[in-house]
Each structure stands twice: as structure tokens, then as C-alpha cells.
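ok new one. same drill as before - C-alpha cells go in, u give me an amino acid for every spot. 507 of them this time. try not to just spam alanines like last time pls lmao
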């Protein structure tokens, strides 16, 4: 970044006043001089008076959009070398490629991550300034012979500044041949990948790519598509400890000023593993939220509809009904209401387990199982289920209220999906790793291998047609046991019943 007297100037082009204001305030505080324009025409007019060091350009604008504005800037000799970073909500690869083809150096997707935006701006200013210095000094080398020594000294000084910058950067800066072979790697390779500089020089950058990501690069090369002069790629790189980390690499091709032939690649790489993990976690949370909302809407629709129908039936004809029929409808209302409450309680429990923390303590498993049976007494009577328990239970470590929910869901599942009548056997097995596997065996029809794979997936039903169910019980079991550091599973064979289990550490 320049000194206070010679600040880098950024031109922000966006038709949204909110975006302009937020970017203006943030980048102003970061030490930049800020210019703003609300559309492409005013941006071009503004640049004719004041030339910025870098342009942040929105794609979706009225009149001429960001792509057309970029094209006009790159066709103008006065403005073609100003780096352009697109601001866009678009994520389609075609739009990205189009932006790079028009000469943009990068893009930032909305909503904008400001720390990432600042890093991208500084990176492209650094690369642009380095390239500008090299080009300027190469032009000096072509001047009169009497100036050659002075130009060589200036070039040497610039290289020293470049090396000083590279060797003190937390990002890994590298120079590569056009085939991707490292000519220079900054010391940050030690902290990012664990390699010494000598272990990377002379090796191709592609040797460190994850095979799946390398395949994508190779397919792009084989397609004949020209690699952009500036690009940003995110990929998995193999560290020295054999683990893969996520890197984001901004690359720029340096051209010979005399022949205009590509000479080498300057690349800046940073570790974005944490960001990728957060993105993946957010993606999973969004999927869970969508599934949760779907379950709420689906499972509450039928009982609430039944309650409404029963209520309307009473309102319209209760005076003409005999007492027995009214009592029958009221009984159905009560049962359906209890079903609705049970669904809501299951959903609240599932959400609570996701956010809650539990104190792990030794507990009496016998008491937990007995309490679970009491909760299901009416259901056991209704299905005429037989439950066989071991004479003693081992002491395990966990959170007793949650383990009661696990047994309640396993027992309920066994009663509904077991044989007719259901015969349920509970037991435990000590494991070699000092954990205890607790299990329940039923006499049901068993599960196919495919059903076993998906059975603990959140909001999946065992059999949505044959038996009425909420699709939440096994999801609750899995989430609870995951929280307690154990494992859940099922062993089953069609026609021979199933064994559902969970593990906990022994006391």
C-alpha cells in the first residue's frame, strides 16, 4: 500500500447506494482514497479526470452493464492496464470466464466478505505494481547504452524489494515457468505446506495438487481453452505431512515487453482451509434447515388438518349428534392433539440437542431403561409387545436425560416396525476399546442394505406407507450419540429382524 501522501485510489462502480456506502466506509478506514460512480457511463467519465489504481466494478447495472464497461476500459490505451475486480452475485462459471476474457483480474461474490475483499485488493495491487515495475525497467534497458548501468541498478533494487516483500509475506509467493515448474518459492511454503524451499524448486506445482483437482485442470488444458492472463483458483494441495489443505492461488502471466511472449507466472497462494470448512459447515446447516422446515410442514399438516376437520364437524352438527358420537370425535381430537404435541416435542428435542451441551457422568442404565418403558406403557400395551432385559446393566458414561430419549426412540421404533406381536430383546456388549455397545434386537422383517445406509439420515422414514411415523426418532438418536462421542448403527438381514445399537464409554 502507498504512503499516506500517495494513497492508492480505488474507484467503486455500483448502482446500489447501500453497497457504495458500505464499501466506501470500509475501504476508507483501510487507508485508501475512494472514488465512486453509480453506473458505467459516469465511471468512464470519472476516470477521464482521475485515474484510479484499481476498479471494483458491479456486473448488474442499468444501461451498460459491468461487462460492457470493462470492455470499453480495456479498449482504451489510457485505462486498459487498470486492474478490474468484478463485484457480482452471479456464480455461473460462464460469467466468470467471460469476465476474465474481458480482462478482469478477479471477482468477488456478493454478499461481500470485507476481509477477503481487502486481501484481494492488496494482492492485485502488489502483483500489478510488481509487473508495472518490471515492464518499466525493461523499457529502460532498451534505452541508450549510457543508461544501461543505471537501469540495471534500478532493476536490481526492484528485485531486492520484491524478494523482501516475498520473504516476509504470510502468503506463499512463487515464480513459475509457463509449464508450472517453480523457479522461486517464498519462505511461507514452510508454514503453509511444511516443505523447505529446496524441496519445491524445480518441481511442478501440479505435483502437489489433489488428483481430483488436477484432473479438472488437465481437462481444461485438453479442451483447448486459453488460460486467462490472470486467474484465481481454489484447490487442495498436498502438504509434507501427506494431508491435503485448501489453497487459493491468484496467478498472473508476465509477458516479455519486446516480443509480447509469455515469460513466466507470478502466483500468490494462501491457506483457505478454515474458510472452506466454514463454507461446508454452512452448506450442511442450510441443508439441515431445509429438511427441518420440510419436516415441520409435512408432519404437522395432517394432524392439524384432522383437528380442524373434527372441530368443524362438532360446530356444524354437535346438536344433532348423540353423546356417543360426540365422545368418539372428542376422543379422536384428543389423540390427534397428543400426536401433534409429540411431533413438536420431538422437533424441539432435535433442535435442542443440536445446540445444547451435556455433562458426561456415570449413570444407572437399568433406571434409564425402566423409565423409558414407563413412558411407552400405553404403546407397549397397544402393540402387545414383549420386552426382554438383561439381569444386570454395566455402568456407562453419558448424559442420562438424553440416553432415556435414545432408548425411548429405539423401543418405539421396535414396537412399530417389529413383528406382530413385537418381541424386543435389549442387551449390551463390551468392546475392545473400553466402550460398551448397547443394543435392541427386534423380530421385524429386517432391512435391505440400501435402507441400512440411509436409515439414520435426518428426517428419513423406515416405511412411510405401512406404518405411521414421524421420521424423527432415529435422527434424534444419531444426533444425541454424536454429541456424546459415540456411534450408532444397525445390523439387519431381510426376513431375520434388526439389531439397532449405540456405543458409550464405560465407567
Amino acid at each position: 500500500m502507498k504512503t499516506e501522501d500517495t494513497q492508492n485510489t480505488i474507484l467503486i462502480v455500483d448502482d446500489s447506494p447501500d453497497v457504495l456506502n458500505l464499501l466506501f466506509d470500509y475501504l476508507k478506514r483501510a487507508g485508501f482514497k475512494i472514488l465512486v460512480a453509480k453506473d458505467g457511463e459516469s465511471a468512464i467519465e470519472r476516470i477521464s479526470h482521475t485515474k484510479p489504481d484499481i476498479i471494483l466494478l458491479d456486473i448488474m447495472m442499468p444501461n451498460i452493464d459491468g461487462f460492457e464497461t470493462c470492455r470499453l476500459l480495456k479498449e482504451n490505451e489510457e485505462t486498459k492496464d487498470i486492474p478490474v475486480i468484478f463485484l457480482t452475485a452471479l456464480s455461473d462459471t460462464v460469467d466468470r470466464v467471460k469476465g476474465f476474457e474481458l480482462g478482469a483480474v478477479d471477482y468477488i461474490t456478493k454478499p461481500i466478505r470485507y476481509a477477503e475483499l481487502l486481501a484481494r485488493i492488496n494482492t492485485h495491487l502488489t502483483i500489478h505494481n510488481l509487473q508495472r515495475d518490471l515492464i518499466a525497467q525493461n523499457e529502460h534497458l532498451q534505452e541508450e547504452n549510457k543508461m544501461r548501468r543505471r537501469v540495471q541498478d534500478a532493476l536490481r533494487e526492484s528485485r531486492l524489494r520484491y524478494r523482501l516483500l516475498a520473504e516476509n509475506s504470510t502468503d506463499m509467493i512463487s515464480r513459475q515457468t509457463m509449464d508450472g515448474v517453480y523457479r522461486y518459492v517464498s519462505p511461507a511454503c514452510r508454514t503453509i505446506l511444511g516443505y523447505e524451499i529446496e524441496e519445491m524448486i524445480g518441481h511442478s506445482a501440479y505435483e502437489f495438487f489433489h488428483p481430483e483437482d488436477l484432473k479438472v485442470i488437465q481437462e481444461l488444458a485438453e479442451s483447448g481453452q486459453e488460460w486467462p492472463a490472470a486467474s484465481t483458483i481454489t484447490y487442495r494441495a498436498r502438504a509434507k505431512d501427506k494431508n491435503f489443505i485448501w489453497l487459493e492461488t491468484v496467478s498472473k502471466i508476465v509477458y516479455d515487453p519486446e516480443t509480447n511472449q509469455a515469460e513466466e507466472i507470478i502466483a500468490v497462494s494462501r491457506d483457505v482451509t478454515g474458510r472452506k470448512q466454514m463454507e461446508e459447515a454452512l452448506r450442511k446447516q442450510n441443508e439441515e434447515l431445509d429438511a427441518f422446515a420440510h419436516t415441520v410442514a409435512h408432519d404437522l399438516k395432517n394432524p392439524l388438518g384432522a383437528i380442524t376437520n373434527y372441530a368443524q364437524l362438532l360446530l356444524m352438527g354437535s346438536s344433532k349428534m348423540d353423546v356417543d358420537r360426540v365422545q368418539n370425535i372428542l376422543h379422536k381430537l384428543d389423540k390427534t392433539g397428543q400426536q401433534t404435541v409429540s411431533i413438536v416435542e420431538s422437533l424441539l428435542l432435535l433442535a435442542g440437542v443440536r445446540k445444547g451441551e451435556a455433562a458426561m457422568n456415570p449413570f444407572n442404565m437399568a433406571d434409564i431403561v425402566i423409565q423409558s418403558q414407563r413412558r411407552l406403557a400405553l404403546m407397549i400395551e397397544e402393540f402387545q409387545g414383549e420386552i426382554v432385559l438383561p439381569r444386570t446393566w454395566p455402568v456407562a458414561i453419558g448424559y442420562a436425560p438424553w440416553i432415556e430419549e435414545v432408548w425411548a426412540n429405539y423401543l418405539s421404533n421396535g414396537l412399530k416396525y417389529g413383528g406382530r406381536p413385537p418381541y424386543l430383546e435389549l442387551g449390551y456388549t463390551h468392546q475392545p476399546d473400553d466402550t460398551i455397545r448397547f443394543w435392541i434386537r427386534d423380530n421385524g422383517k429386517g432391512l435391505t442394505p440400501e435402507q441400512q445406509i440411509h436409515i439414520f439420515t435426518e428426517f428419513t422414514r423406515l416405511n412411510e406407507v405401512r406404518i405411521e411415523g414421524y421420521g424423527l426418532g432415529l435422527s434424534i438418536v444419531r444426533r444425541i450419540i454424536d454429541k456424546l462421542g459415540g456411534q450408532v448403527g444397525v445390523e439387519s438381514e431381510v426376513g431375520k429382524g434388526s439389531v439397532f445399537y449405540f456405543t458409550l464409554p464405560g465407567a
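The chain has four domains: 1-112, 115-271, 273-356, 357-507. and btw The CA atoms of residues 46 and 464 lie 64 Å apart.
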